[in-house]
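Running co-folding for heme C.
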Amino acid sequence: MKNILFISALSVFLYAQPTFESSETCKSCHPTIYKEFQSTQHAKASIFDDEIHAAVWKKHPKNTKMSSYACAKCHTPAASNYDDLVGKHNNIRPDATDSTQREGISCAYCHRIESIKPGKMSNTNVIAKEGKSYFGSLKSHIESPFHKIKTDSKHFNSGNVCVGCHSHKKNKYDINVCSTNIDNELDGANCVSCHMPKVKGSVSTLNETKEHAFHGFPGTHSHQDMLTQYVELFLKESIKTFEITINNKSSHALTLHPMRTMQLQVKVIRGSKEIKLAHKNFARIIGVNGKGTPPWLAKVIVEDTAVKANEKRVVVYDYVLKKGDKVEVTIGYYLVNPKMLKSLDLEKSEVATKFHHFKTELFEIK
Ligand code: HEC
Ligand code: HEC
Ligand code: HEC
Ligand code: HEC
Ligand code: HEC
C-alpha cells in the first residue's frame, strides 16, 4: 500500500506538460522549410493570426460561458500553458503576448507526434516524451548538431501524422462537423503526397540536397495552384444542353470545412458578347429544422451538395451552344458561406468575403 501511494504521488510529481522548441530555432539550419511554413495556416492557426477562427471563437458558447479554449487541442497545441487553456471554467483565455500560443502548430510539435489515439469526437496526438528528438522520413540523413533524429517513414510519409487533427471532429449531437477521414476508411491514403509534394531546395544548410518536402501546405488559403491537378473540368455538348463535369481526384470532399461554399461559374463568349450563366453552389450545410446553424448547435445535415471524394459531378446547363463559341469554366470558393458573414461579424473581412479562384478552363466549340 505504501508503495502504491508513493508511486502515484511520484507520477503526479513527474508529470510535466511537454515544452517545444520554437519554430524560429529551426530557421538557421532549415531556412527554406521555415520560410514556406511561415505563410501557412498551421503557423497562423491561433485566434490572433486567423480572423475566421477568431470570429467563430468569439461566438462559441465555450467562450461566452467562459469555459475552456478547447480549440487549443488542434489550433495551439504547442502552448506552454496548454493544460490550463483546455482546463474547464478557469477563466483562462488565449493571450496574444504568449509567443508559444502564436506558434500555432509548430515544427517541433508536429515532428514529435509519435502516434495517434483514435477517439469518437476527435482523435488525439500522442507526443513523444523526449524533447529535441524529431521524427522524419528521410531515407538517409547526416546527424544534426541540434537534435536527435528518429526515422519513422510509415507514420510520416503516409499522412498518418495528419489524422490526429484532421480525421474528424464531431459535436455533442454526434454530427460530423468536419472530416477528411470519418470512418478511418482512408487507411494508407496519402495526405502528404498531395499536400507536401517534393520541391527544389535543400532540406538543411548543413547537407546540400536537391529537394525537400514542401512545407507551405497548399490548401484553400494559399498555394491552391499546387492542387489544381487533382480537380479536372470537362465540357460535353448535347443538342439542347451541355454538361460540365467536375472530376474530384482527391480522397476527401472538396471545400470540406462546413463554413465553405464552392462555386462553379460559366461564361459563354460568342463573338464580342459575353453571356454569364447562373452560378452553381456546392456546400455541406449542418443545422436544425432545415436551416444552417453554427456547428455546436447542428443536429442534422441540412443539405450536402459538396463534391465528394473521387466523385465525378455532372452539372447540366439548359443552353444551346453554337460553333465558334468559347466557354470559360471557373471553380473557386468562399471561405465563409456568404449567408454566415453577418452573424459572424465578418462582412468587412477581405479573406472571408472574397471569391478565391481555384481553376479555369476555356473550351472552344468546334
Ligand atoms: C480535432 C481538431 C480541432 C479542434 C478541436 C478544433 N479545430 Fe478548428 N480546424 C481544425 C482543422 C483540421 C481545420 C482545417 C480544416 C479545413 O481547412 O478544412 C480547422 C479549421 C477551422 C476554421 C476555419 C479557419 C479558416 O481560416 O478558414 C475555423 C473557423 C475553426 N477551425 C474553428 C474552431 C473553433 C472555434 C474551435 C474550438 C471551439 C476549433 N476550431 C477546434 C481542427 C480542429
Ligand atoms: C544546427 C542545425 C539544425 C537546427 C537548429 C535544426 N536542425 Fe533539423 N536537421 C539538421 C540536419 C543537419 C539534419 C539532417 C539533414 C540531412 O541529412 O540532409 C536535420 C534533419 C531534420 C529532420 C529530418 C529527419 C528525417 O530523417 O527525416 C527534421 C524533422 C528536423 N531536422 C526537424 C527540425 C526542427 C523541428 C528544428 C527546430 C525545432 C530543427 N530541425 C532544427 C540540422 C538542424
Ligand atoms: C495539431 C493539429 C494538426 C496537425 C497534426 C495537422 N494539421 Fe493541418 N491544420 C490544422 C488546423 C487547426 C488547421 C486550420 C488552421 C486555421 O486555418 O486556423 C489546419 C489546416 C490545414 C490545411 C489547410 C490549409 C489552407 O490553406 O486552407 C491543410 C492543407 C492541412 N492542414 C494539411 C495538413 C497535413 C498534410 C498534415 C500532416 C502532415 C497536417 N495538416 C497536420 C491542424 C493540424
Ligand atoms: C503539420 C505537420 C508538420 C509541420 C508543422 C512541420 N513539418 Fe516538417 N515534415 C512533416 C512531414 C509529414 C514530413 C515528411 C514528408 C515526407 O515524407 O515526404 C516532414 C519532413 C521534414 C523534414 C525532412 C525533409 C524532407 O524534405 O522530407 C524536415 C527537415 C522538416 N520536416 C523540418 C520542419 C521544420 C523546420 C518545420 C517548421 C519550420 C516543420 N518541419 C514543420 C510534417 C510537418
Ligand atoms: C489526391 C490528392 C489529395 C489527397 C490524397 C488529399 N488531399 Fe486535401 N486537398 C486536395 C485538393 C485538390 C484540395 C483543394 C480543394 C478543396 O478546397 O477542397 C484539398 C484541400 C484540403 C484542405 C482544405 C479544405 C478546406 O475546406 O479548407 C484540407 C484541410 C486538406 N485538404 C487536408 C487533407 C488531409 C488531412 C488529407 C489526408 C487525410 C488530404 N487532404 C488528402 C487534394 C488532396
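Result summary
Residues 50, 52-53, 56-57, 60, 62, 70-71, 73-75, 122, 165-166, 169, 178, 219-220, 256-257, 335 surround heme C (ligand 1) (CB under 6 Å).
DSSP finds twelve helices and 19 strands in the chain.
Job closed.
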